[in-house]
Amino acid sequence: MSGRPNFSSNECEALVDTVGLHFDALFGKFSLALTNDRKNELWNDVTQKVNAVSTANPPRTVAEIKKKYQVLKTNVKQVETANSNEMKKTGGGTATLQPQSSIGEKLLALIPRVEIVGIEGGLDISKLSTIDPAPLNLISIIEPTANNGETRKSITDATTDDFDEDVAQIPKPKKQVKRSAETTLFALQAKQVKLLEVQTEQLARIGDLLAQRNSIEQAKLELMKN
């Protein structure tokens, strides 16, 4: 909306504080109790709280409030990503970090860490697009043809000999080799070991992220002391 004043610090504070009160409902999964109407009611409440401390005329709309929240969230993510990259460059040593604003610190306390910086080596879930689940038509009806390209006889024109010939050309299924109980048990144990290895790797990544987070917090404390 052109000509609209920038959000004041009071507006941003009211926005983040009220979003924090309804965070789980605003961004939770839909259910019988948590409907789209309920989410809209909560966003209206956030908008009312912002307009209570706003001087904007006409008052802020829900669309403005949602857009501003995304902007604030993006700013927090950019700072955290930059700090994380800086820590990687120094190998966890002394690094020059960008401090978060008071609004940014509140958002960090609300938003899951993985949503802010993602999982190292994984996907950024904020960039995943919604896929239309419309079913695909994978079946097409074509006129059957013989191997030499000639049109096969229709069912009404075919004779018994033709059907016998077709049946003879159908490849017989291969006999399935039954696996012994020991082989099956070994395969299951191998899968369990693989799953444990994957879980261990994920836990190690989470541990690295927590260590980076602690290093960043320590650096922030040092900056505040100085």
TrEMBL record:
Native species: Folsomia candida
Record domain Myb/SANT-like DNA-binding: where: 5-78
Pfam families, per the entry: Myb_DNA-bind_5
Primary role: Involved in transvection phenomena (= synapsis-dependent gene expression), where the synaptic pairing of chromosomes carrying genes with which zeste interacts influences the expression of these genes. Zeste binds to DNA and stimulates transcription from a nearby promoter.
UniProt subunit comment: Self-associates forming complexes of several hundred monomers.
PANTHER family registered for this protein in UniProt: AGAP001331-PA-RELATED, MYB-RELATED TRANSCRIPTION FACTOR, PARTNER OF PROFILIN-LIKE ISOFORM X2-RELATED
Domain of life the protein comes from: Eukaryota
A cellular-component GO term for this protein: nucleus
The name this protein goes by in its record: Regulatory protein zeste
